[in-house]
Amino acid sequence: MQTMAIIGAQWGDEGKGKITDLLAEKSDLVVRYQGGHNAGHTIWVNGVKTVLHVIPSGVLHPHCTSVIGHGVVLEPENFLFELNRIQKATKVTPDNLKVSETATVITHYHKILDAAREAQGNEKIGTTGKGIGPAYEDKIARRAVKVKDLFDKDTLVQRLGIGYAEKAILFKNLYNIEFPAVEQEVERLYALGQSMKDYVCDTFSLIDTSLAKGKRVLYEGAQGILLDVDYGTYPYVTSSSTSASGIFTGAGIPNHKLEEVIGVAKAYTTRVGEGPFPTELFDELGSTIQIKGNEVGATTGRKRRCGWLDIPLLRYAIKSSQLTSIALTKLDILSNLSELKVCYAYELNGKTVDCAYPGINLYKAKPLFKEFKPFKDDFSDGKASADLERYMSYIQEALGIPVSIYAYGPDRNQIVFKKNLF
Ligand code: IMP
Asked: Over the stretch 133-171, which tens digit does the pLDDT of each residue have?
């Protein structure tokens, strides 16, 4: 097997980072293809915690080349800060970290606009406030600054100038906020560009030549399929293609196809920000899961909303990203709970619906639950009890694809591979 993808199968925060970190051991390249520093991938190695936002989760393996593809929106200041921090923990050089020259740059204007809209706009999305949406808007409108533009001041003046006039009107007249002049932003971005220049290259050709040499490439998704701008629960989504299809536009798999697509799902469901959530728990059990699972955003520190595992949503995720197997994470959090449920279908307008197709109004979908005998595993021997096996078998059968990996803790040695991958 040469190509594999790790994709969030829910609303993000499924624990993709730790699975990617483990599979990176056997990979030559780990490639991010969308999103930006709105992501927060937490990896634990021997009790030491590392949080990555835009740098791929393969970076803790120096033999592996980490690639930030052209579909990513990159905030240079944050990138350099993160790079500096990670360099204290592991060896990261321009030889093993590459940034696409055509990735889109997040500027100060994007961050200001994101914050202003969330604070003063009519409809709150509950964004991470990192400027992600406004940066993608500029990309699609063909007025974005690309990473390669950072190396020439005249180009920066020209590219920033295109959108500036419009933004200035918004900032001054609609939001009444301070904003930097173009000259100031040009100087800031140029200086940042000089600091990251050595890491920048044509990542598409790097992936192409690597695949041609038989190297193994692992694509790392950020957020989750239900936050995909097209497949997700619009408008409560992020602004990128988080599903497997984003790989083709955001990085490329020249002359190859995806051989394995692992959908990472928590054994329950969480979501941050606004939007529908059929299995959400508003009772004490919900807050028990939130506290026990430490369900707090790695990027924003916001509490995550918690609920039972939602099979109809996962069925939709499988169909929309051609998932080939599931990695089930955070099983330890469900151990020893007073009750254990899985939503197998919804009741909607008097009918039973078993797949959360986009036409389904999730606000009106009433979850139908199957109850399980709660498992009481302490995982000390790394083995699953009969009760836990029964729970996982049900999920596997209901989804129609295997559970290839399960995790009962955040550390590398708490992740069990049921299938040999890579
Ligand atoms: P944005 O990506 O900052 O524009 O936020 C849009 C939506 O995606 C909000 O509901 C965020 O909470 C959500 N979101 C963005 N990144 C993540 C993530 O890494 N995990 C979970 N939710 C996220």
From this structure: 999 999 999 999 999 999 999 999 999 999 898 999 999
Q: Which two tokens stand for residue 156?
A: 């920066």
- Predicted confidence (pLDDT) per residue in 325-372, tens digit: 999 999 999 999 999 999 999 999 999 999 999 999 999 999 999 999
Residue 42 near ligand 1, beta carbon < 6 Å: no
Name the residue of 53, 111, 227 to mutate for ligand 1: max ligand atoms within 8 A of Cβ: 227
Nearest alpha carbon, ligand 1 atom 11: 127
Give this prediction's pTM: 0.96
- Amino acid 312 reads P
Q: Which of 41, 53, 61, 70 is catalytic?
A: 41
Sign of CA dihedral 113, 119, 120, 122: positive
Smallest CA-to-CA distance from 330 within 260, 250, 388, 281 is with 388
Instruction: Describe the crossing of helices 76-87 and 182-196 by its angle, rounded to 10 degrees.
Output: 30
**Binding site membership of 10 for ligand 1 (Cβ less than 6 Å):** no
Task: Specify whether the CB–CB gap between 331 and 406 falls below 8 A.
Answer: yes
State yes or no: is 13 an active-site residue.
yes
Encoded amino acid at 200, one letter: V
Q: How far, in whole angstroms, is CA 76 from its chain's centroid?
A: 19
131 CA distance to ligand 1 middle (Å)? 11
